[in-house]
Amino acid sequence: MRTMSTTGLQLAADAGLDFSLPQQLTVILLCALTAFISHMALAVFNDGVRPFMLDFIHGRTTRSATTAVSFGLSAGFIFGLGAPMALSSGVLNPWLLFLPTDILGLLAPKKWLAPLLGAGWGAVVVFGLNGANEVAHDLPVDFLTAMQQMSTPILFLFTLFPVLAITKQFGRAWGAAAGAVELALVVMTMKLWPDIFAGALAMAVGVLLLIGLAVRRDLVQRKADRQAAASGAVSEEAPDDDPMASLFSASATRLRRYLPLFMVLGAGVCVLAQMHIFGGGEATSFLIAKGHFSEAAQVDFYRVFGFVPLIATTALASGAYGIAGFTLVYPIGYLMPNPVLAAVVGAAVFALEVLALSSIGKVLGKLPSVRDSSEHLRNAITDSLHLAILFGSLMAANAMGGGLGILIVGGLYLLNEAMGRPVVRMAAAPTAVIIGGVLLNVLYWLDLFTPLKG
Question: Full-prediction pTM beyond 0.90?
């Protein structure tokens, strides 16, 4: 445990946002590419924006209206989660890189302008964040160092997301059993293998148990349906004309026409992950910062199961894919030994994903419990991370201002709730930490607050 909580935190504290020239160029070029792809309405990162892309593609809504939707659904995550997470961990994330390029690409009225705007944002990230990071660390109340307190609750509470998903889908008994198994595995890992992330094995077993239960339920149901059909109680006839099947086919065909462009995109995202300056999620960012690359790969691999059905169905329904695809390129990239191999493998993975979209959609149509598991996984990830980020933000508030810090940060969070969440819940607590840190520095300059020692 000491390796994770003390040495690991020191690694995170030492992490900076000072990028090498190849890293800077990779970020800038990838931001240019993602903005261009967004402009073409071929892919966006925000899952909430993707369903709106169908009307845009068919000319039933304007570019400015679609841009407004994208900005409204993304701004809170960019400034409330993406930027604070990058500054506190020293690792870039998709909310900071790809949500802005969604907006800028859609905003650009001309095709040639989109990559220029995207490249400009990439330059702001690689050159501007380090300066902001240095300024923040020089303040009397260093709220960025305090925000590293979020790492422990995020890493360990995130471990429970399979337990929550199992409980919601299969009931309390299975949930309790999964919880007991995960707790035992965490304790065993901490005792026997203290140098690895204690939740890695527990999450693996939890996700496998959820998938196993879902597949078992689907197989049992299909067997019952076949028996009922054989007895004449249920008709297996399906409508001859399925409008959704026609739409799915047209969307898949549209995406396949741009396969080379998607392969370049897959190569770029995989190379960025291979450079270990990028994490695909909240927990992953801190694992990457601490040098736990294999554990980060495991965490992002498990998340894939929660997002494949969502990304596949929305892509087939809208004709717009995900900027990170099924996000498989994240864990693959973390484990690649060099950028060249990462580029080749990333391109191949994206090619397979795009070509397999129609088949994946058909398989998901036959496995309703697996589709339900995906939704439960996404909800469980959100619930566990919401609690972890809130708890970690209050720990950060205590570290930088004691009771006064908790009052300010907790009060801002509660005020956001009372006002109907103008800042999305996931981003509200980190935003409150930054605002609270600024206020504590103002109070210090007014000689009304003395920073805590140590």
Answer: no
